[in-house]
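Sharing a chain and its predicted structure for anyone who wants a worked example. Both blocks are below, sequence first, tokens second.
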Amino acid sequence: MRRVLFLILLIVIKLGAIEERTGEASMEFLNIREGTKEISLGIEKEIEAGKYPEIGFTYKKWIAGMKYQGIKYSLPINRFLIGCGITYFDMGEIKGRDEKGERTGNYRPYDIEIELNTGYRKGELTVLNRIKYIKEKIKDEEAEALAMDIYLKYWIFQLGIENIGGKVRFIKEKYSLPLKIFSGLRLRIKERVKLVMDITREYDGRIIKGAGIEWKIRDIFYLRTGYRDGMDYSKKISFGIGIKGERIGVDYAYIPEETFGNIHQFSINFIMGKGKKEERRKELLFELGRTEGIEIEKVINKEMERIVVKIGEPVIKVSTESAKISWKEEVMRKIIELVKKMKDYRITVIGYYTREEKRISEERVKYFRMYLSMKTGIKEENIRYKVREFGNKKKFLISIEFIR
């Protein structure tokens, strides 16, 4: 992990040094932020690898009558992700004139981007890569380019490098792509409140700072607001709302802009292949919660990002000399079924101990981990374990923690 972070940092330094020697850039539309949620929060980008197949549509009414439209599809395969998308940026109709100022007819400049995405997610680490073909056309002149974006997310930290590529020839001049580097933090202050912060360095050396806050209401409705310093807009405050259901999500963002007109962006995402798997998980959790000897300590949110299942006293009392534990058959059957259904989560087995029996507790946890591995087919090294001091009053011996 340290090697990966070092290489990313080295790339950032090298690219920053190169960009300082370039004065102008082409294909400025690449600087437009894509995500509706990100715009409402005042940040550059949320680095996420979806857990389910998803298709999304975005429409933006930008400044001075310009329009931005896109469609994207992503498909997770175990820990990996592949996806594709196409974006079209319409600069609006322009009245053409010759060198003498005479009318020559109207034309409509545009930019188009076709992308291929790949990604990898494991625990707190997410790595994404995007390769894109870009074409810009203004009247009879065209320019084409290939570029790449790299994104890294680890725990609460984010880092992104966009528009890595060579020179672009437009008419008779060569221009650089608008290289952009950003980093940020994502902090969950409370269960329903999220604070986000970003700092971005654009190709011309301009530094943009952004921060926002998101409130979640009843696990389905989101209120967002953000502030972005360093933009060209006269107003830097942004607002937005989001609605997220089981199979569909809708987001809206708004930036008040007096000079060129207000900015509105709308997106809709359809989540596929989620229903049956999530329904069975929820059914199992409900059944577990009603089973004597099991307690569901917490399900952090409706999407079940983090779950802790505690298993209580065994049928056979455990002596201090023995690490083996035996629970009711019904309890173990449901636990094993749940673990099988949670293979795409990070699984940690936790053992509780009083001050006198830490060593025995660790042996119990290792035995239980081996038992789960044997019954579920999950490799033993893929099930983490740890022990925790519980105090003098002990109600539970083992818990299993599931984290996306």
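Comments welcome. The longest strand covers residues 125-138.
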